[in-house]
Amino acid sequence: MMEAGAQRRVTGETASSAMNYSIRRSPSARNVWLRFSQSGDLVVVIPHRFDIRRVADIVEANHKWIHRAATRVGARREAREREAPAALPERIVLPALAREWTLEYNPTDYPHVRIVERDGDRLVLSGNTHNYEQCRDALLRWLRRKGRQTLAPELCDLAARTGFSIAGITVRTQRTRWASCSRNGTISLNTRLLFVPPELVHHVMLHELCHTKRMDHSTKFWSLVESHDPDWRKHRKMLRAGWRSLPAWLDSRITVGRPDEGKRSLNTCEL
After folding, report:
1. Rounded to 10 degrees, what is the CA torsion of 121, 124, 129, 133?
2. Strands 113-118, 91-94: parallel, antiparallel or unpaired by DSSP?
3. Going by fewer Cβ within 10 Å, which terminus of the chain is more open, N or C?
């Protein structure tokens, strides 16, 4: 029997060609996922009790999408390799907070990078500021602090006003989703929400709060969402376009297109 978290390399035949893929059994997965790793390999993620014998048929049924996605992922990887890292920002604008900061980079002999928020909406980075990754990591730490200070209290207030209960809140820097809700009612928010307008932050939060009552995307779930957010369809469309407006420096390397183009779920409760 395949242990949870273990990965198995498989070669299977699809309708058009041989297809290599890995199978990973995940104890936290609720659905079957088809996804491509950064190296371009196909990984099939299955729930803990899922019958592994069904995987070959799933790969076969999705072989057209797999080949299209493999082409996109390969092109995206080649584009990233050709591009230099995005320049560090001279200013940061956070529409969710209706605020803007100018950045100053002060090199010193300190081997790491410190970041301090000064009066006048200034962010001062000091230390090894010639190191791109250290500066970027410092900026991401600052964003997570901002998220915990602003997004988390906003979600608590919204839950109280709309009658939802949540088990906990985490604020993280994620590359492929705006937020998620676990089975126990813990909601994880992406710091990237700080870069979208307040109405979209509100939409994402309501979406995840509704998942505390319905862990699916059924008709009943969307009816619940609509009762709290009548314009959810417009907001959802705006949110999908939001990835393209995110600053390039948020990723260590420039990405081309949406970060989840090489991933497919047969059913998901993530946004």
Report:
1. -50
2. unpaired
3. N
Structural contact between residues 108 and 126, judged by C-beta atoms closer than 8 angstroms = yes
Q: Which of 61, 75, 69 is nearest to 32 (CA)?
A: 61
Topology of domain 91-252, per CATH? Zincin-like (3.30.2010)
Q: 163-204: per-residue pLDDT in tens?
A: 999 999 999 988 778 999 988 899 999 999 999 999 999 999
The label of the residue with tokens 């079957």 reads 32
The token pair at 9 is 């390399």
**What six digits make up the tokens of 90?**
């001279």
Is the pLDDT at 27 greater than 50? The verdict is yes
Residue 128 CA, chain-centre distance (Å), reads 29
Residues 131, 110 contacting (CB under 8 angstroms): no
Where are the domains positioned within the chain? 7-82, 91-252
132-162 and 198-211 helices, crossing angle to 10°: 60
Rounded to two decimals, the pTM is: 0.66
Interatomic CA distance for residues 128 and 190, integer angstroms: 27
- Strand (E) or helix (H) holding 188: strand 186-190
In the chain, what is the greatest distance between 2 CA atoms, to the nearest angstrom?
63
The whole-angstrom separation of Cα 192 and Cα 243 is 9
Tens-place pLDDT, residues 131-161: 998 999 999 999 999 999 999 999 999 999 9
pLDDT, average across residues 27-40: 81
